[in-house]
Amino acid sequence: MPGHALAPSVPIGVVGAGTMGSGIAQVAAVAGHEVRLYDVLPGAAASAIERIHGHVDRMVAKDRLTAPDGDAAKARLRPVQALADLAGCGLVIEAALEELSVKRELFTELEKVCGDDAVLASNTSTFSITAIAAGLQRPERVVGMHFFNPAPLMALVEVPAGAATSEAVAEQVFDTATAWGKTPVRCTSTPGFVVNRVARPFYGEALQVLEDGAADCATIDAVLRESGGFRMGSFELADLVGNDVNLAVGRSVWEQTFGDPRYAPSTRQQALVDAGWMGRKSGRGWYTYDDESPEPATEQPRPAPERVVYHGGFATCYGLLDRIVAGGVSVERYLTGASGARNGSDDFDPSEIAYGVELPSGGLVIETTGEPVSMDGDAVSLDWVGDAANATRVCLAPSDACEPNTLAEAIGLFQAASLAVTVIDDVPGLVVARTVSMLVNEAVDLVARGEAAAADVDTAMRLGTGYPRGPLAWGDEVGAGLVVDVLTELARAYPSGRYRPSPMLIRAARAGRPLVSLARR
Ligand code: NAD
């Protein structure tokens, strides 16, 4: 058992027997603790325990628990009628209503009934641990213990420390979560903690592309999934979480950061909530969930060009070359290394030639560095691809001066590589590049502010959101310099301050320092 974890003989109190409280009670009981469950609603704790028994039975049926261990876990769960019954618990986890006044009242009561050495934790998603603990006799024993839904299945637990939280208390909760089979991460009580903070652009960028009229929801979602490698698109995920919940989390981060433009809520999403279109739970959200599910924009088959010329070194397009060749297109490659040498010759100036593919039409396919491709004459912009070997779609945008033949050849080129092709309007940073760049920027910013360690940010985002990679590792793969380029172009296009690159990101890009190893001095 990790060094400071509470022994299984220590009783655990859980306040609030709803979705989260019952999941947390189940985790603690299966881990060997006596669990006392309290809810303000009479009978709620007892019926929650009945439901937990059902979940434990299913764990036994699936061989995830032996029958005697399942019976023992069930026997350890007990509903209690009053907060005072939590006296003697070594750790009380509050998972009641998400209202600051309710939580403050509860903690004031808990402080009175619990022993001096009891740790008091809150599962709040949005409130500051510092604010919850304010005014208590012993705020140093208050800490966050932020489980994800469903608590028994999700490995991640964020452990945010408030301004007054003692190191020993945070360590004890961290080690206890580890002993319960979870993967905890430490952070400060910063707005949104790690996951709800760093994930904001995943929604914000998709909304911006939608608001710019460049593509519809189904198309943006398909590009994020099939090209970016995300498990779900932003709109389908917001519909699953509930647009009311998603908007409230975003608004809370925005308000707590005093209106930082990076987190500005979307009027389009607000309109959805005003209409009562919360998502799956209300039968309508970004999608209508009737028989006609909208198809993403996908191009009809076009002939592949016989031969193209590739110039460059960027990850996305380079990674797709083998697939293009396997699809029967002959590719002449001019690779530019750090020296800029072209196929070994030293008379090549890389600044004179765009990175990307030269088509037989004379037009170019240019991997996006953030700026609209309409600056480049007869050209097509290529969005980033998360995983070139496994992507099933690419996203292209023609420049204003793009010849029809150039666009047709570009479409045929990627279709030859067995990729579906989506064509959208020429927006800065397209879809995947802007989303990934903003996720990287948020992650770096959190590290720069000393809110969380780099490794913890990547772990939290992989486990909490299911992103294919942690944003810092993703940034290293793409190259911090390219991320800065995309952000700089976006900042030029939308001068609100939302896209300003983190100073630590700029320094890391200049010094060639890996983002995964960044640390605050
Ligand atoms: P829920 O509505 O399912 O359950 C809340 C329960 O708390 C209800 O049973 C209610 O009767 C009870 N309650 C309300 N006031 C109380 C009081 N004063 N004393 C005791 N019990 C009281 O809500 P939930 O989704 O389980 O959320 C609980 C907490 O967990 C919130 O702070 C929420 O922000 C946080 N959280 C939720 C999720 C999620 O995905 N649902 C994820 C992480 C954290």
From TrEMBL:
It comes from the Bacteria. Pathway: Lipid metabolism; butanoate metabolism. PROSITE patterns: 3HCDH (PS00067). Residues 192-289, 429-513 form the 3-hydroxyacyl-CoA dehydrogenase C-terminal domain. Keywords: Oxidoreductase. GO terms for molecular function: (3S)-3-hydroxyacyl-CoA dehydrogenase (NAD+) activity. InterPro entries: 3-OHacyl-CoA_DH_CS, 3-OHacyl-CoA_DH_NAD-bd, 3HC_DH_C, 3HCDH_RFF, 6-PGluconate_DH-like_C_sf, 6PGD_dom2, NAD(P)-bd_dom_sf. The keyword Oxidoreductase applies. Residues 377-428 form the 3-hydroxybutyryl-CoA dehydrogenase reduced Rossmann-fold domain. Its EC number is 1.1.1.35. Gene3D superfamilies: 1.10.1040.50, N-(1-d-carboxylethyl)-l-norvaline Dehydrogenase, domain 2 (1.10.1040.10), NAD(P)-binding Rossmann-like Domain (3.40.50.720). Residues 12-188 form the 3-hydroxyacyl-CoA dehydrogenase NAD binding domain. NCBIfam families: PRK08268.1 (NF006124). Belongs to the 3-hydroxyacyl-CoA dehydrogenase family. This is 3-hydroxyacyl-CoA dehydrogenase. It comes from Tenggerimyces flavus. The lineage of its organism: Bacteria, Bacillati, Actinomycetota, Actinomycetes, Propionibacteriales.
